[in-house]
Amino acid sequence: MARYLLTRAWQSxxxxxxxxxxxxxxxxxxxxxxxxxxxxxxRSPEALEAIRRHYGLDQPLPVQFAQYVERMVQGDFGxxxxxxxxxxxxLTTALPVTVELSVLAILxxxxxxxxxxxxxxxxxxxxAEWVANGMALIGLSVPHFWLGLLAILYLSVATxxxxxxxxxxxxEDPVDNLHHIVLPAVILGTGLAAIIMRQTRSxxxxxxSSDYVRTAKAKGLRPRAVITQHALRNSLIVVVTVVGxxxxxxxxxxxxxEQIFGLPGFGKMxxxxxxxxxxxxxxxxxxxxxxxxxxxxxxxDLLYSVIDPRIRVTGDPA
Amino acid sequence: xxxxxxxGAAATVATPVLAVRDLSVSFPTxxxxxxxxxxxxxxxxxxxxxxxxxxxxCGKSVTAMSIAGLLPGSxxxxxxxxxxxxxxxxxxxxxxxxxxxxxIAYIFQEPMTSLNPVLTVGRQIGEVLQxxxxxxxxAARARAVELLTLVGIxxxxxxxxxYPHQLSGGMRQRVMIAMAVACGPKVLVADEPTTALDVTxxxxxxxxxxxxxxRLGTSILVITHDLGVIADIADRVVxxxxxxxxxxxxxxxxxxxxxxxxxxxxxxxxxxxxxHAGTDRLQEIPGLVPVLSVQPDVCTFAxxxxxxxxxxxxxxxxxxxxxxxxxxxxxxxxxxxPSPRSDVEEAHR
Lengths: 318, 349
What we know:
Distance between the termini of chain B: 37 Å
CATH class of the largest domain in chain B: Alpha Beta
CATH architecture of the domain at 95-311 in chain A: Orthogonal Bundle
Strand content of chain B: 15-25%
CATH superfamily of the largest domain in chain B: P-loop containing nucleotide triphosphate hydrolases
CATH superfamily of the domain at 95-311 in chain A: MetI-like
CATH topology of the largest domain in chain B: Rossmann fold
Number of strands of chain A: 0
Oligomer: heterodimer
Structural class of chain B: alpha/beta
CATH topology of the domain at 95-311 in chain A: MetI-like fold
Helix content of chain B: 25-40%
Largest sheet of chain A: none
Structural class of chain A: mainly alpha
Strand content of chain A: under 5%
CATH class of the domain at 95-311 in chain A: Mainly Alpha
Radius of gyration of chain A: 24 Å
CATH architecture of the largest domain in chain B: 3-Layer(aba) Sandwich
Order of helices and strands of chain B: HEEEHEEHEHHHHHEHEHEEHHEEH
Shape of chain B: globular
Number of strands of chain B: 12
């Protein structure tokens, strides 16, 4: 186990370094100049020069990179070129919003996707399956920004069931917080739920026709026990893989969803930063996203071994 | 028990534990109905081991599965399966669930795929006890250790926490058997229990089954295509062909004198030490088991039979007592083999 963890840590560090390099040079390769964006109307060469010097943009790129890595290792993400506030304090306000939104979306999508997938497999060829398949098709093919707009139109503006935009921190008022975030989370989770449903359904169909399910039936177990303890348990491995693979999509989805619902999260921060060529913010956001991705993938791998003893990393081989 | 004693025991058949009468099973498919089993009847006496033999696709497994109602809902089943006098065909699912695993238990061919890969063997054995005996998880686990010891698994207390992939093929099949006998079933249906195993392991598994019969008095229906297994373990044999029983006899009688041409062909197709040692080749039965949409009122073996004539293609032979002396030996053939097997082989050549 220790050896495995060490290998994983080493690989993660390498991935992080590479993503740092790519982002650092990538944003600078984009057309546009933060100094120009910042200078506004006053575009005199002197003013631009002063701005560049202030933010260290006049240094050669390798030097900038070295300085950036040095500061980052110390936990200093720099100062936003646009607003002048430290990136770390921007992150502390934006990150909880996105994390809450994503976690809630994953939970809802998994519950809905697995539930509908199991139902579709068990009730194969009956109305329940058609309904589940139809919902999945809609979930997959309708872009969620459009779904989000519809939801705002009908559930917020027309009926007033949910607030159309805004956010209340969970520590301030948990109920109001949930009220604000549940609709965006549902919208963000629809695509994921549809994918999970499709995968669960096909994995369940495989399991249900397997020999061990026949054995379970021959033992006289109730259908519920056969489905949950035997078939579903074996199908979960597929579900976990899908959830793991879809997280990248979820993060980009969160950017759009936050924009639609006006949530002050990561996504909004990223979009603003990219438009303003706010290098420190973009770098921090991408690095954090990469870290999150690595951590989540690691957790997914650990979860595999919990679900499937055959790929358990340690343990008595015989 | 010698084979002669076994034949004797079989002749004095007590009230059967399991009585199958005129069992027919068909499946609707896109290309029409497929008849898998047609009018099968057989009895299983207490403590008796009956072998059911036939080629792939002859309806052995479908018969086995239909006994405890394990076929998919699309299967159309008629006839009667009585367990100690209680009818099982057409019984409600809930009632059948109380029978499965408790009164009638199953062992399947592939011990690797038939065990759930993500649950420990102890859990899988314990599950049966928790469901049928209302045991606590802890008590079920303790009983699972005893059962594993009973089927000859060494250091059972350690093995109980193993997952199937950590065990060898033979061990896995022993686990399947432990699971099957957990509630002391009256009937054990073993569907090709040794087919997926090495020959050396096979002998061990058959020994476990025999032990269980001797110790617990379980009646066992062994389904196989391997006549060696039948000769080794069975008291009586049922030979199936294309969904029908073509011959039924005590094992010694059947091997000594097969009446049905198909049985004779099967026996000629399996090696016997000495007899085939020289230039003699094993006899093959030409052709394949037919897939039938409707069971025709003719002998379904006629197209592959060396003795078939017009009569075989006009009407189906009934399953009848073949010789006045042995009331327990039945065959369904218009032209049964006249005398011991050597003549049949002549006919084949």
